[in-house]
Design a protein that fits this description.
It is built from six helices and two strands; from the N terminus they run ααααααββ. It is mostly helical. The chain has a two-stranded antiparallel sheet. Helix 1 crosses helix 2.
Length: 140
């Protein structure tokens, strides 16, 4: 069974994970949480290393990093479905105008088709691609 963190360990962890001036910096976080007046930099480094190896602290840091990573994935992942839906909305909005914007609606429809793989562009590369110049042609 693991012991709960002391107040100082909790303060260290809070500074390490959340304090904008100390985030991810073990030495600065340690100096905030502990009295270091009579400690050398080497001694502080050793204590930080010991704290970061503490199973409870290392687990909380991992959980925090996993949570941040998951949030980033959820907020910033842009899928093909998201893109397809945006194009669909753009097409609908273009057609709702007093004077429908057929060009924009058509472009959105074409992009949706390209996204779904309905349009294949065949290319042909001629010449030695390891040397310049080489040529790329669109084949019909």
């Amino acid at each position: 069974m693991t012991r709960p963190l002391t107040e100082k360990q909790t303060n260290f962890l809070d500074a390490y994970l959340n304090d904008p001036e100390r985030k991810g910096n073990g030495i600065l976080s340690y100096k905030k949480a502990y009295n270091c007046k009579n400690m050398s930099d080497k001694a502080i480094y050793v204590e930080v290393s010991r704290l970061l190896k503490n199973p409870v602290i290392s687990l909380r840091i991992k959980e925090f990093k996993d949570k941040v990573e998951k949030k980033i994935e959820e907020e910033f992942v842009y899928t093909a479905l998201d893109h397809y839906n945006e194009l669909d909305e753009l097409k609908k909005e273009a057609m709702k105008l007093d004077k429908p914007d057929l060009k924009t609606a058509l472009q959105a429809s074409i992009k949706k088709g390209e996204l779904k793989g309905l349009y294949k562009i065949k290319t042909e590369i001629t010449g030695d691609v390891s040397k310049m110049p080489f040529e790329i042609k669109i084949v019909e």
